[in-house]
Amino acid sequence: MISSDIIRGHLDAIILKLIIEKDRYGYEISKEISERTNNVFEIKEATLYAVFQRLEKKHFIVSYSGQITHGRTRKYYKITALGKEYFDEKLNEWKLTKEIIDTLLEEKK
Amino acid sequence: MEINKRDYRHIIGGEKMITIKDYVEGLFREIPDSQEKENIKNEIILNLEEKVQDLMESGKAEEDAINKSIVEFGDITEIKMNLLAESGSVQTKKVSKVNYANRMWFSIWGAILIIGLFFFINYTTSWYVHPWFVYPTFAVLWWPLATFFSWLNHRQK
Q: Residue A66 belongs to what H/E stretch?
């Protein structure tokens, strides 16, 4: 399992991206991350909820309770305009970073 | 088989299969109660139970599924710190507000009573000779004045 600083530094953006696609709840997000990476990267639940707390406090996401399962409500997260803006900024930043590292690490053409 | 296993456990000390709920309750035991703690606890329990359900559907025994979920759960120090930071700031704010309001009223009523007492003594004894109650009145008025300004200072912070 990979758990590098680079991934950790982009967890907020990764989770925002999944919430931008559609409103999601906690377990769904951790499952989605494992599936999309073929279980190469798995997020720890404890980390996930810390990220939720952080994003909610910064008003990047809001939560609401929805869909009753077995008589209980699930907590769903929804993106805010501010969150979308932050994500776009992070995505651009990442593209630039990737380019720089590619240029510096790969063979000169 | 199942019954034998249970009996055996009972003999070696009654070790019961831990549930997700027990585990999460244990994690948050030392955090002071709040609505936010309750919310995040319920959220974690619900999501973990769903994970256990998923693992069992893919063929794991219940106990294995629970253990795997617990092992993979990770470290909740950050969540706890966030909860503690929040409850801490809310508490100190509340306490100091109540304190300042009380202190302000206490100083005002205290001053009124003391001034009233001097005025009464002065009025019933030597009023036409010398209205000396004015001196203690000015001295005592420093009290609510000082309280008022320390309250202003606190508000600006």
A: strand A61-69
Nearest CA in chain A to B53: A27
Query: B44: which chain A residues are within 8 Å (Cβ-Cβ)?
Result: 26, 45, 49
- Which structure tokens are listed for A24? 């999601």
Could you read off the pLDDT of A19-71 as tens digits, one per residue?
Answer: 999 999 989 999 999 999 998 888 888 889 999 999 999 999 999 988 766 66
Nearest to B47 among A27, A44, A50 (CB): A27
Domain boundaries, chain B: 1-74, 92-157
Domains of chain A (ranges; CATH) run 5-105 (1.10.10.10)
How many residues are recorded in chain B?
157
Closest CA to A53 of B120, B154, B63, B79: B79
Cβ contact B18:B66 at 8 Å = yes
> What is the phi/psi pair of residue A59, to 5°?
65, 30
ipTM of the complex model: 0.78
Q: Under an 8 A CB cutoff, do B48 and A25 touch?
A: no
Q: What count of residues does chain A have?
A: 109
Main-chain phi, psi angles of A74, to 5 degrees: -95, 150
